[in-house]
Amino acid sequence: MISKAMKNWFFWMDGQRKDVLNDVGLLLMRLVFGGTMLLGHGYGKFVNYAKVSANFPDPLGLGGATTMALAIFAEFFCAILVVLGLATRLAAIPLILTMASAFFIFHSADAFKDKELALLFLTAFSTLFLTGAGRFSIDGIFRRKMKS
């Protein structure tokens, strides 16, 4: 049997608590997905550009160096903006395009297990594009200052 207090907390939270928890969830999403993209993918490309760019995959026909530069812009610089929550919706667009091309073009012939990470990133950055960064972000600070 669920106690009345638990029922009130989990199922019938007031709007203010729901808003705070939603904003905490967006903060976690930004930190985990943005940080993972930055440190797990973007940083390595950024520091190894000269070594890797000539042989970087080019599924769009732009040239390996150009394709890698676009990937670095998204996975390193835009990921930093997402982590900070600064211009989050705008920063999410290159990340969405990069992960969509990774999932639908570059890994299109791969088994699902080999491309599922791109789909997870695509989903997370699409969600942040739709929702924004939330209260606990630089965007949120600017939004509050604009209201007052």
Could you walk me through the main structural features you see in this protein, from its secondary elements to its overall organization?
The chain is mainly α. It has one domain. The protein is built from 7 helices and no strands. α4 crosses α5 and α5 packs antiparallel against α6.
Features:
148 residues; mainly alpha; 0% strand; elongated
A few lines on this structure:
This protein has helices at 4-11, 15-47, 49-52, 64-84, 88-106, 112-131, 138-147.
What is the alpha-carbon Rg in Å?
Answer: 19 Å
Distance between the amino and carboxyl termini: 45 Å
Percentage of residues in strands? under 5%
| Major sheet details | none
Break the fold down into its secondary structure elements and pairings.
Elements: H1 4-11, H2 15-47, H3 49-52, H4 64-84, H5 88-106, H6 112-131, H7 138-147
